[in-house]
Design a protein that fits this description.
- Helix content is 3%, strand content 40%.
- With 739 residues, it is mainly beta.
- A 4-stranded antiparallel sheet has the order 1-56-55-54, with no helix packed on it. It has a 4-stranded antiparallel sheet with strand order 2-3-4-5, with no helix packed on it. The protein has a 4-stranded antiparallel sheet with strand order 6-7-8-9, with no helix packed on it.
- Mean pLDDT is 84; it is low at 1-33, 365-370, 689-715 and 724-739.
């Protein structure tokens, strides 16, 4: 079974309002690391290596003798132009380094003497062609820099004297072959530029005189080997171009005459070392190609005559320094290859004769480490929050008074059953926590007094139904646990006495409605389980006696609002089900009698706060639904009568603790909401104000500044008329008290 595509790769997607309707209290286990979530890597002619830290907001230089220097951090050029979420990095022949900021929509040049200059910002070419979501960067032999805009669907050229030109936009070649969400960019010795379109499943060549040609599309080599979601791209000295297909698990070589050859597929080297989610590709002067397998935790070398060799795997250097989620790869002129571990927060050098050395680790230049990528979150009846750290392989409990305790780590139960890449987390009425290990193919129960037990492993029910990549987890009032297996296309129920039963498999309801890549799972008070199928674009209800019903499919509400790539699912006390469509940018409510209603779409609250790529869904006892906008960096509350309010935005608590990529969401019995920021590596508790009780405080700010700081409740301009007045209070009261 192939590894699932959903969870890890969306690291690629990555902006400042007042805190709305409540006091948000940040609960975080963070000490910033030197290097965290390295994204890109480059090497110069002298053997110096350069690495970006996406999570640590910086970049490092590592000399051949191992001296590590931070060359840029979040402060950017120190003149107000910050570097936010650096992704790509490149170096020219003169030793100038170029770093792009995905969330700051810009790029910087760092000269050998350390002078930092912003060379492009969100205004793009200042002629209306903006730069949004800078993703890839390349530099040619003349010092021209090339940058892709993932969100603005374009690419720019910046000359050494600062002239900025848009070289391609969303129209692609202007002949119907569009460019959607460009990622990778490369340039050859002749000045030809190559760009991948991640969502248009293609790649383009742009000549120095501006001629644009589509060189490969979703049909791949035209022989049945498709190209799905191309990301990495490279070009060699002979004009051959190399492209990776992230979702098709392969890579292609495109010759100058247009001949396309698949050079590696998901079988990897064909002797058991598979290639899963190839993100980046590089090529050396001899024409050897190198590709990383992000989810297979390895990298391969492909020679010009097609010999494939695995050059590094999960074991890293074999000395305890593992390679997790390798992302970027580059090669020097001496046969040396360099790979970043996106989840292990490190980078390795592999010499031509196969010697592997870790050249930088999470300490960077020696500043510590942190909890990385908190995704799943849950809350118990007592108001304790539980958070799973995907890349730090652990989970934490945060009590009401803010005491933070790590309840499980990579060692799992301490008896050999490890916890790797936890995603789902749940808590029962007794304060027991449950967490899934997506890459260790298991789940654990952690009691309130700290006893850890593995409750299911990859053998699933121990019969014929295996469990692969468990993601979602839920628990009912009787202590039964429900777990979805994303890669095994099924779900299990585990009773308190350990009886394991497969409750649904890939056949879905057995009537043609299949279940593929189930992620979200929920359970109601009657013991009915609900599961979303990401790749089958649907959701099912499974009753305690095993009756399976498809409750929504890709058609959504049948009135034109489609349902695409569902992730989160929740159910309220009345049996209403709520599901979010990640790619359809919406959420639906399904009543017990099957009435389907779209409760929010991409317009969000209709006041400028959009909903982009929702992942998490929660519901409270009053029938309010909560949805996280992973790419819009916000969370919405939708009341039963349809009032939509944004309850937290990208500025988090408004005191510098931002919210990036909210994913997991939970709500406790008191109506407090908990949300994780996988990009900001934190979690928030949002306590909604009782504005009737605090009306005098609200009234006191009617004549004062709009954002009056009071200890219990903020005073938003809810009708956006520029004044905080009684109309705002009325709206505020209706939204947050009239529940």
């Amino acid at each position: 079974m192939l590894q699932a595509r959903h969870s890890t790769f969306f690291v690629l997607m990555i902006l400042a309002c007042f805190p709305t309707a409540g006091v948000a209290r940040t609960v975080t286990e963070i000490i910033f690391a030197g290097l965290e979530r390295p994204q890109d890597i480059a090497v110069d002619d002298t053997g110096n290596v350069y690495v970006t830290g996406y999570g640590s907001q910086n970049a490092f230089k590592i000399t051949p003798d191992g001296v590590i220097t931070e060359i840029i951090d979040y402060s950017g050029d120190g003149m107000g132009n910050t570097l936010d979420r650096p992704t790509g990095i490149a170096v020219d022949a003169s030793g100038n380094v170029y770093v792009i900021g995905y969330l700051s929509d810009n790029a910087f040049k760092i000269a050998p003497d350390g002078v930092i200059t912003e060379i492009i910002d969100s205004t793009g070419d200042r002629m209306g062609n903006t730069l949004d979501g800078a993703r890839g960067v390349a530099v040619d032999e003349s010092g021209n820099v090339y940058v892709t805009g993932y969100g603005s669907q374009n690419a720019f050229k910046i000359t050494p004297d600062g002239v900025i030109t848009e070289i391609i936009d969303s129209t692609g070649d202007g002949m119907g072959n569009t460019l959607d969400n460009p990622q990778g960019i490369a340039v050859d010795a002749s000045g030809n530029v190559y760009v991948t379109g991640y969502l248009s499943d293609n790649a383009f060549k742009i000549t120095s005189d501006g001629i644009i040609t589509e060189i490969i599309d979703s049909t791949g080599d035209g022989k049945g080997n498709t190209l799905d979601n191309p990301a990495g791209i490279a070009a060699d000295a002979s004009g051959n171009v190399y492209v990776t297909g992230v979702m098709s698990d392969n890579a292609y070589k495109i010759a100058p005459d247009g001949m396309i050859t698949e050079i590696i597929d998901r079988l990897g080297d064909g002797i058991g070392n598979r290639l899963i989610i190839p993100v980046r590709i590089a090529v050396d002067p001899s024409g050897n190609a190198y590709v990383t397998g992000a989810s297979s935790h390895n990298a391969f070398k492909i020679t010009p005559d097609g010999v494939i060799t695995e050059i590094i795997d999960l074991t890293g250097d074999g000395m305890g320094n593992t390679l997790n989620y390798p992302y970027a790869i580059t090669a020097d002129g001496s046969g040396g290859v360099y790979v970043t571990g996106g989840a292990s927060d490190n980078a390795f050098k592999i010499t031509a004769d196969g010697v592997i050395t870790e050249i930088i680790d999470p300490s960077g230049d020696g500043t510590g480490e942190e909890l990385v990528w908190p995704g799943g979150i849950a809350a118990d009846a007592s108001g304790n929050a539980y958070i799973a750290g995907y890349f730090s392989h652990n989970a934490f409990k945060i009590t009401l008074d803010g005491v933070i305790t790590q309840i499980i780590d990579l060692t799992g139960d301490g008896m050999g059953d490890t916890l790797r890449y936890p995603t789902g987390i749940a808590a029962d009425d007794s304060g027991n926590a449950y967490v899934t290990g997506s890459r260790s193919d298991n789940a654990f129960k952690i009691t309130s007094d700290g006893l850890i037990t593995e409750i299911i492993d990859s053998t699933g029910d121990g019969l014929e139904s295996a469990l692969y990549e468990p993601t979602g987890i839920a628990v009912d009032h009787s202590g039964n646990v429900y777990i979805s297996g994303c890669d095994s296309d099924n779900a299990f129920k585990v009773t308190p006495d350990g009886i394991i039963t497969e409750i649904i498999d890939s056949t879905g309801d057995g009537m043609g409605n299949r279940l593929y890549e189930p992620v979200g799972i929920a359970v109601d008070d009657s013991g009915n389980a609900y599961v979303t199928g990401e790749s089958s674009h649907n959701a099912f209800k499974i009753t305690p006696d095993g009756v399976i019903t498809e409750i929504i499919d890709s058609t959504g509400d049948d009135v034109g609002n489609a349902f695409d790539y569902p992730c989160g699912i929740a159910v309220d006390d009345s049996g209403n089900t709520y599901v979010a469509g990640y790619f359809s940018n919406n959420a639906f409510k399904i009543t017990p009698d099957g009435v389907i209603t779209e409760i929010i779409d991409r317009l969000g609250d209709g006041m400028g706060n959009t909903l982009d790529n929702p992942r998490g869904v929660a519901a409270d006892g009053s029938g309010n639904a909560y949805v996280t906008g992973c790419m819009s960096h916000n969370v919405f509350k939708i009341t039963p009568d349809g009032v939509i309010t944004v309850i937290i935005r990208s500025d988090g608590d408004g005191t510098g603790n931002t919210l990036d990529y909210p994913s997991g969401i939970a709500v406790d019995d008191s109506g407090n909401t908990y949300v994780t920021g996988i990009g900001s590596h934190n979690a928030f508790k949002i306590e909604l104000c009782d504005t009737l009780a605090h009306y005098p405080l609200f009234e006191s700010c009617l004549t004062g500044p709009e954002h009056v700081a009071d200890p219990t409740c903020s005073c938003p301009d809810d009708d956006a008329d520029g004044d905080v007045d009684l109309l705002d209070f009325a709206r505020f009261q209706r939204t947050f008290v009239g529940q």
